[in-house]
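Appendix B. Raw example, untouched.
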Amino acid sequence: MNRTTLSLIAAVTALAAVTGFAAATTPGGDDTSGKAAAARLPVERSSLLCPQPSQSDLAETAYTSYTPETKGTEGAGTAELTPAKGGKKGKAVVTPKKPGTPVAGDATGAEAPALTGTADGALAPGWTVQQTTSVTAGSGRGLLGVNCSEPDTDFYFPGASTAKGRSDYVHLTNPDDEAAVVDVQMYGPEGAVKSEVGEGITVGPHSSVPVLLSTLTDKAETNLTLHVTARSGRVGAAVSDADEKQGGDWLPASADPAASLVLPGIPKDAKNVRLVAFAPGQDDADLKVQLATSSGKIAPAGHDTLHLKSGMTTAADLGAVTRGEAGSLILTPSEGSVPVVAALRVTRGKGADQETAFIPATRSIGARATVADNRSKGTTLALTAPGSTGKVKVTASPGTEGGTATTKEYTVKGGTTLSVTPPVPSGLKGSYALTVEPVSGGPVHGSRMLEKKQGSVPAFTVQTLPDDRGMVSVPKADEDLSVVQK
């Protein structure tokens, strides 16, 4: 007798839990009811990649790691961030111990390396690491912040530039044992920018490669969309922007191309807001542009619609669009339904004291979103409900050096942006994490602004709050699905 036992459900469940990819049905089937109903389980392993913080000798970087407590996990798990190959050797920069408690580390100077990290067990679901760098002088001075990202194979960065006075790098970091091969394609207002040196960039195992965009082309373009794709392997990708006059920050990847986008958390004192958008498909896109304020949606004067030609980057300067009241930009199709990507370049301050930050389009908070490295002063939370009213719960964790967690609920009216100073843990010492979870109602999108004055410069950075993908849907079976062959 030849006996072969196959358990497809077990294989899919294990793959989803380890990698974080959701599987809602059994292979080859569409039934999601009854015995094939999907269950939500915490992921068992997460990877994060942090780019090289800065090329300035004056840079001071703080790393804050946090994993929210998740039902269904047991034990403490393990996690650490270590230098990528080519960086300084030595012990891990950050080593978390248990969920629910943030851990901080730091680095200084231009030699601070890119980091690669893995978390498993109870530390994996929702693991987030914030990298915050202060540069007090020189090109790109200001507050630079980025959430360390998951490895992937496809990224869009609307808002990059090769203009004079800008030094934009795309940082490519490979977490795996085999080399990755990456293509970097740029799109300007006239379409694809020719560049042979942007093709086939090799990123060695466990290493990081910063690529200066101006070395990929002779054309000086103020507004570009960068498309990064991995031919083989996978990478983390982020764009650093250093401007000689307007400071700098990190430009994270936009949310995946979609017909409707939300860009949350434009500061109330923004002096200029530039929208950069791109339609990557074969069709042009016509977008309705709205600003979600505290009282409802309005059309920015002179910019209520935006036409995007396929394959060409389009930019619109919206000026001081918020006019003293924080808001969020909502893009919806005014004709047809064409997937697009978008980001905002936000400027605060005046004259020589200007500072910039980026807000890419982002997913909703979904089941849960987390951002680390919040401070007792200078932290602002922006929440936007693009459709119906939504209610969320915001939890402030203990501090990195002490404090007691606290929770507060907020109701965000449909079509509005709620800008608040978030709750602070009692007895706070150090920095802390914020976790946002839905309570009821429609989807909510969010971002966190962190600000800290550097003399007369209003230094700031904005991080969006997408779903942390700490939970995955996997098929659930109520009976033995093994196959016996005789």
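End of appendix B.
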